[in-house]
Amino acid sequence: MTMSIIDFHTHIFPDRIARQAIAALAEDSGEYAPRTDGTLKGLLASMDHAGIGLSVVANIATRPAQMLPIFDFCRNIAGKRIAPLISVHPGNSMDEVNALFLQAADAGIRGVKLHPMYQGFFIDDRRMYPIYQLIEHFGFFVVFHTGFDIAFPGNTQADVERVSTVAKEFRDLLIVTTHVGGWRQWDRAGILGTCGNVYTETSMTLTEMADEEFVKVLSEFDEDRVLFGSDSPWTDQKEMLDRTLRLRLADGRKEKMMYRNAAALLGTGGPS
Question: Could you tell me the pTM of the whole model?
Answer without folding.
Answer: 0.94
